[in-house]
Amino acid sequence: MSVQEYLEKHLLSRKIEEAVNAAVRAKAPDPVLFIAGHMRRAAPAVITRVQARQILDGHGAPAVEVELHTNKAVHRASAAGAGAPEGAAADSAGDSGRRKILARSVADAVRVINDKVSEALVGMDPQQQAQIDQAIMDLDKARHKAELGANAMLAVSIAACKAGAAEKEVPLYKHIADLVGKSATTLPVPAITVINGGKHAGNGLPIQEIMILPVGAKNFEEALQMGSETYHHLKDIILEKYGAESCNIGDHGGFAPNISSISEGLDLVIAAIERAGYNGRIKLAIDVAATDFCFGKKYDLEFKSTKKSGQNFKTADDMIEIYSQLCSEYPLVSIEQPFDKDDWEHSKKLTTLELCQVAGDDLLMSDPERIKRAVNEYTCNALVLKVNQVGTVTEAIEVVKQAKDAHWGVMVSHRSGDTEDSFIADLAVGAAAGQIKAGAPCRGECLTKYNQLLRIEEELGSEGVYAGENWRTASAS
């Protein structure tokens, strides 16, 4: 083939002329660089390869990382594991055996991505998120994400989402907003972990987390500053009252003082808020994770104690009384997973009291069918969205819409032992969730989400609106 034939076949003469004219119109200071960029944008992006590997998450456990290659760039994403494997084989294996089972599961997912998923996505346009996610889901013949694993599917889906944003030359949160179908200018209120308990800490506190919500901040930057200052004042208070050994941190970076009473923990946080000078501007939230200490139909508030008093084995109705008392004594505005994952009756009872936001975690599992039932029965009034439970970006967006249509609050949440991927920060803004839960202002996998939100707010400038007092009703305009 001659040079002239080659030029004619690929219409290069016309394309180069168009690029030169564009450079002249733009008065480009570096015409060669401008023309190169113009030509690059003229070629549509297509997926050329998907490569996965095993990495370690924030707990040092195996997780999946994906690099999605297009003909223009490489986009990386990772997703936390779904947790420790369950079942008889896992139970009999012990801790070491469970870790090996999890590692094998991740290794299997890596192989499937490198073979089946990569082959299925080659040639697809990364801007077509719904089609990409459907192609991923079509590979899961079990239809319950058992073959690929929701975390593995999510890592691929997020990488594709990042590639789609890059091809459109817009920020990731803006691309997500486009997928949602609305504009994005809402920065979420952070539910910042300050005290850990439950199975996420070695103290006697039965509930999993005490969090602070800086709803009185004027913007996200101030909210994070308020949260960080309160966190450090809390450390000083714990040090003064319990000693240095009580300043150790739990799984989410919250402090784990040797306390067993919920009220004692809330009192410590209130004292820290007052010492920081933010009284009235910061609200409280708790993640009870009650499934972890539900035995039969009762809740053992001393489930971690070796010396049980026998006085803290509560019925579900007793728990409602406890929550009601806490809401009357403290600025407690959100209770996450207050009962067992299958206790729909008492979750409904608490929700109908309208004392605070009742957020479903284990109850909903970010599952559309469970959300539908909860909406119909008014079993809770907020969704805790854990995207690696859902499986793909498209499905995550759909459950957010489902919750928003029901006028629920939406709390986009990280996972215990998350990876350093900051995707949920962009998701919270793009979907106008109003709330984000990413742990303490401590630990890299937590801070990467908060720091990304600082960047997004800076980029949005005057268009960025902090949810603040509207944390439950934030919406994309």
Automatic annotation (TrEMBL):
Residues the entry annotates as binding Mg(2+): 287, 336, 361
Any matching Pfam family: Enolase_C
Cofactor binding notes: Mg(2+) is required for catalysis and for stabilizing the dimer.
Coiled-coil segments: none
Cofactor(s) of this protein: Mg(2+)
Family, as annotated: Belongs to the enolase family.
Identification of the protein by name: phosphopyruvate hydratase
Organism of this sequence: Urochloa decumbens
